[in-house]
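> forwarded from #structure-qc
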């Protein structure tokens, strides 16, 4: 539920002074963030959906992404973004963790409102964030074409921000966007949900899962006629899916699966915990089912 605008009076100032005094009394060095919302909850910066949009530079004739007219890196100041997940699971054993995923804070998520925050710094440095916190971002927005050793191809990109995160206020867990499975069959249609918390219904596992160097994935059945590179999958990016389950054998079905939609040589739904899987006869998971 959205909060009503605060009236113009001396009360916000008094609250701010009291909060500052309280923080000072507590020492301020333990990384705990204040919980009192600011008068302007979303801030004056940009929303993610104002910065990320359709990839007009896609070029199916440029398989190696050598002539891509991608936008140049640019400074970005985002305010009022909800933290939906933190990658704390090192599935490869090589330090593959640290990314944060945020989306514009809103009662109903809209397209292009999510983004990956690549290994952020924090202000203050000892800040500890949890999903549900509303944050500000200051950094550089990049349309990442993929590693230099092998681009994604066709001028496909991963939008991401590298920079510093700061706390704005504590809020309820982000609400997942309901995404039709058909929207995940191509880069052009799935891009609008990158970095967002999504819920996809009618999931069926296409074949037995694969495991390579710690990465555990299971392809989703999206029907015939979809190129192999465009077939979405479930992945263990955010928790030990292989060990903690549920089992993802060929033919397994789920009424819905919730997770962060990621992109790296293909789209993946990354559930946050086993509760993100809704069995055929189970009730819909609550929004905070995977709260830490």
């Amino acid at each position: 539920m959205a909060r009503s605008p605060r009236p113009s009076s001396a009360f916000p100032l008094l609250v701010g002074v009291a909060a500052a005094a309280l923080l000072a009394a507590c020492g301020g060095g333990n990384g705990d963030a204040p919980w009192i919302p600011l008068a302007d909850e979303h801030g004056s910066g940009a929303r993610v959906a104002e910065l990320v949009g359709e990839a007009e530079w896609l070029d199916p004739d440029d398989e190696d992404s050598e002539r891509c007219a991608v936008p140049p890196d640019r400074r970005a100041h985002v305010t009022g973004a909800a933290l939906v997940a933190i990658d704390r699971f090192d599935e490869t054993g090589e330090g593959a963790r640290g990314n944060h995923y945020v989306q514009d804070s809103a009662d109903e998520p809209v397209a292009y409102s999510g983004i990956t925050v690549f290994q952020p710094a924090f202000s203050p440095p000892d800040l500890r964030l949890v999903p549900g916190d509303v944050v500000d971002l200051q950094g550089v927005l990049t349309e990442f074409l993929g590693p230099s050793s092998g681009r994604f191809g066709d001028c496909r990109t991963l939008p991401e921000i590298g920079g510093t995160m700061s706390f704005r206020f504590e809020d309820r867990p982000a609400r997942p966007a309901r995404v039709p499975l058909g929207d995940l069959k191509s880069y052009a249609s799935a891009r609008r949900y990158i970095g967002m918390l999504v819920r996809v219904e009618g999931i069926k596992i296409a074949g037995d899962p694969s495991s390579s160097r710690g990465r555990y994935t299971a392809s989703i059945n999206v029907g015939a006629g979809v190129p192999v590179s465009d077939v979405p999958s479930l992945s263990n990016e955010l928790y030990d899916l292989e060990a903690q389950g549920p089992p993802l054998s060929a033919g397994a079905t789920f009424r819905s699966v919730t997770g962060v939609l990621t992109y790296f040589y293909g789209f993946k739904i990354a559930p946050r915990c086993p509760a993100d899987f809704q069995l055929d006869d189970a009730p819909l998971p609550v929004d905070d089912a995977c709260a830490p």
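QC bot note: The helical segments are 11-26, 48-51, 187-190, 241-244. The chain has two domains: 43-170, 177-278.
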